[in-house]
Design a protein that fits this description.
With 262 residues, this protein is of the alpha/beta class. The protein is built from nine helices and eleven strands. Helices cover 32% and strands 17% of the residues.
Length: 262
């Protein structure tokens, strides 16, 4: 790698943002309260306060990335473009995008605004990343299901920056593209409204009969990710940004986890 690895922390609100800063984050990622981000239930940030937020981050030598990482409908494109212009004016260091159309719109409307591919863009190979680079993508957040060997192969065949999650919730669906929340409750995970159905307790019924699972209830939820011991291997594999999940978590969580990875 040509530069030191980045520690990237989540911020669901201003208090979490400051917890990340004070505990050694190199960069912070957060969403806007007006939407277009995959964590609508977080407090998030307004466009009005964004210049002040970016000034606070840059004053401490910390980068700020905005999650613009939901699918965008055709009738929302004008509003999306206005938002992109405001993000660029505020001095945002990069935006994370899932929607290919939004990536093209951002490149055209705000060519100086850096683009990072969200994990939900599902870029699982160097060939996929090559196409993303043609859209102006400068960094790719790899799928959480990628192995270190797969990361190493991608890195060897691609010059683009690679970011990977190292801590926090894992999604039971491939690259977070889950339809369960929408099918059960009309809340699309790809529009920021994930109900986290995989985190609920379930009973198991087989051929009409209840199966005794004793105290095992969380049948769909994968264990959370904790990659403390994998950091050397991930560095060697080519990861340049280490991402902590948790825009719905408390300031105490952000502080604690950021401090430990620092």
């Amino acid at each position: 790698m040509s530069q030191a690895a980045e520690l990237l922390s989540p911020a669901g609100d201003r208090e979490c943002l400051r917890a990340a800063i004070e505990n050694g984050a190199d960069a912070v990622y957060f969403g806007l309260e007006k939407g277009f981000n995959a964590r609508a239930r977080a407090t998030n940030f307004s466009l009005v306060e964004l210049p002040d937020v970016m000034a606070e981050l840059h004053g401490r030598g910390v980068r700020g990335y905005v999650t613009f990482n939901t699918l965008v409908f055709a009738d929302e494109l004008a509003e999306a473009e206005r938002t992109l212009v405001e993000l660029a004016k505020a001095g945002v260091d990069a935006i994370l995008v899932q929607d290919l159309g939004l990536a093209r719109l951002a490149a055209a409307a705000c060519p100086d605004l850096s683009l990072h591919a969200s994990t939900q863009m599902t870029l699982t190979s160097a060939e996929c990343i090559e196409v993303a680079a043609e859209l102006g993508i400068e960094r790719v957040v790899l799928p959480r299901e990628a192995t270190i060997d797969e990361i190493r192969q991608i890195s060897a065949a691609s010059a683009i920056e690679l970011e990977a999650f190292v801590h926090g919730a894992l999604c039971v669906a491939y690259s977070g593209q889950c339809l369960t929340s929408e099918s059960l409750g009309g809340r699309s995970a790809n529009r920021g409204q994930c109900a986290q159905a995989c985190r609920l307790p379930y009973e198991l019924v087989c051929d009409g009969n209840d199966v005794d699972l004793d105290d095992v209830k969380y049948l769909l939820s994968p264990q959370d990710l904790a990659a403390f011991e994998l950091i050397p291997s991930m560095l060697e594999a080519g990861i340049s940004s280490f991402k902590i999940e948790g825009r719905l978590k408390t300031p105490e969580y952000v502080a604690n986890v950021t401090h430990h990875y620092r």
